[in-house]
Request: fold
Amino acid sequence: MPPHSSSHLRRNAAAYCVVLVGLLLTAVSATYVQQSIHERRLHRFDGAVHDGVLGLQQRLELNQSLLQGVHGLFTGSRFVSQEEFDAYLESLKLNRSFPELEGIGFARWLRPQDVARYDAKVRGGQEPGHPVWPPGPRAAYTAIIMLNPLNARTQQGLGFDMLTEPNRRAAMLRALGTRRQAATHKVRLIQGWEDAAGRWGIVLFIPVYTRPKDTPPPRPPTENLRGFVYLPLAMEDLMSELRFIGFQETIDLEVYDGTEVRDDALLYASSLPASAGAPVFQQDVKIPVAGQTWTLRFNARQAFIAASTTGQHGTVVGAGLLVTLLLFFITRSQVRARTSAEAANTEQQRLTGEARDAVQVRDDFLSIAAHELRTPLTNLKLQLQLLYRQLRREEALDVEKLAQRVLSCERQTSRLATLVDSLLDVSRLARGRMELNLEPVDLDELVREAVRRFETEARTAGVQVTVDSPAPVTGQWDRMRLEQVLTNLLSNALKYGHGAPVDVRVRSDETQAMVEVEDRGIGLPPEDAQRIFGRFERAVSSRHYGGLGLGLFITRQLVEALGGHISVASTPGQGATFTVALPLSGPRAEA
Reply:
């Protein structure tokens, strides 16, 4: 070695040592950091797997608990009607607790000698359900007799014998042997009543027995057997509520029926194998499902590594902090953008729904209004044609017939005027242009005048209207508008009273007056007590009772404009009582 080279190395030995040690420490640190990152990733993956398994087991146990609860309903009663079945499931609020639920049902067990008698009773209306199908001789039969929800789609399954399908038959026989819940192997749910789209899933069964009065000795599995409560579960619906860290973003889940991973046993895959790529971590977990075994395969994508990266070999600290900071801002901006988009979409859906409802209300109203306006116009046209023919005759005019037809024309004209006035009142109320002419008004006198105007109509309907007003009641109100309120209430009482007596009561205290109009007619359900005061709302069908659905809406608006309030108390089939409370001092003092 030349002398100047040796001298150079000695002078810079310390520097080279520092470089060497630095490189060594950097390599060791990079290796240690890389190993730590790998262990943290593996620990994070294990935690996600644990959460995923626990979450799926909880979803399954929740559905099994539902099935067990329905089993208890049937076991605790010798007869369960469709109404009791529906009421029990309605009490569970299934839309919130089981949003993925497609339906739940009960299949009755039938011996061969019982099938003909059962079919005859069904056709005769003595038994619920549908005759057993498909036909054919078998050692035993079942027939679906109850379903929830029961609608046009699901009722197609009534009467179906699930013993005719091998997978379902095997699960039902296993349930009989264990007297516990049993699940089928992978099955395609029957399109229609089990699943709207006919997707892959499983069906849970549990047998229902008639409970003996005393403790019996061991008996054959089919003795005292009433049938099976069953629950179809579509895998897509079951997994849609599953949540754990990274699911469907960096971790994929595959569910297989059985202990082996085979393509034909695949129940569910969160992504297509071609799109997922080779997994960086993989773990298989087996769980029991009502007598069956499922294999859960968790696969971590390459994105899982990127999501858990905290730095690189050459920039363990600085680059890691920078990347973390950048990822933080990027993620936050993405979350904000996504939240804004979801809020905008929700608002758009709400506005679209409101617009659709408004258009539907408008169309319904126009249809009813056209019908209501056409009826008096048709009668009026007929009467005018009869008048014209009678006037064209050469013989002497029958004055009495002319007077009757003119009176009929006047009644139809008044009906038209009332309908038009109702429409005008709604328009004024909507624009806030209702004007009040306040003056001292004797409520007792006004009520009696209103009742006298309805004497002819009440006499024709065979209705006795009584007024109970112990003393005069005077307040500061608009006479015409208050008279309109009374007219609407009396008209409704006569229309829906079915010929029963109508009572009108007037009471007062130091600050307010009250008018009660009570009929004993058809009444209305409690849930309609507030709705009937809405615009174009009706508690009964427009086919059986005329009207635009505006009377009570206008009545409420007028009462509130006068500073008061209106309410109704009713029991279906026992009539209704409308109560109007008004301040004696008028709306200004009330405000």
Observations:
- The mean pLDDT is 81.
